[in-house]
Amino acid sequence: MEITLLVYLLSCCAVLVTSEKIIIIGAGASGISAATRLIENNVTDFRILEAETRLGGRIHSILLKDREKDVYVDLGGEYVGGEEGNVVYEFARGALHHSDDSRRRKAFYSDGKSINETFSEKILEFRANLRSWYEDKKPISTADAFLRDSIPPY
Q1: Which of 55, 56, 85, 128 could form a disulfide with 27, with the two C-beta atoms 3.0–4.6 Å apart?
Q2: Whole-angstrom Cα distance, residue 113 to residue 73?
Q3: Where, if anywhere, are coiled coils annotated (predicted)?
């Protein structure tokens, strides 16, 4: 067991022996942003190391096929913050579709097939009832009671 682990660790280290002067860990938004900034400044002597078989890091979109229309769903990052001039922020601002249509929720199985709306509404209603019941029954500390009563919900 120890020998297998040692061989594995040595093989990982062998991969890291490169001639590049800069190593970027991860091909997520920050890693790609760092590589872009280096290229913009005429620095090309770098290597990006990524543990997954795809780019994007926590940003992971998949296509869900539905009877009405196909939609892309994000399984990863839910929020993109930043400022003008930040490459990731600028990309997201131009690429993301903003929708305020929260009246109609759709639920999907992990294989992308849509769940019957009546069934999914019953599940969501059950979840809301369970949460309400839990909130009413759970013990609360004195500090939590003070904070709950003195700080308005957001």
Answers
A1: 55
A2: 12
A3: none
pLDDT tens per residue across span 95-108: 666 555 555 667 77
Q: What is the rounded CA–CA span in Å between residue 114 and residue 108?
A: 4
In a domain, 124, yes or no: no
Residue 43 lies in a domain: yes
Render pLDDT for 40-51 as a digit per residue (tens, 0 to 9): 999 999 999 998
Q: What is the dihedral of CA 137, 140, 146, 149, to 10 degrees?
A: -10
∠ CA(136), CA(154), CA(132), 5° rounding?
20
Of 91, 56, 58, 62, nearest to 76 by C-alpha is 58
Q: Contact at 8 Å (CB) between 35 and 24?
A: yes
CB 80 within 8 A of CB 89: yes
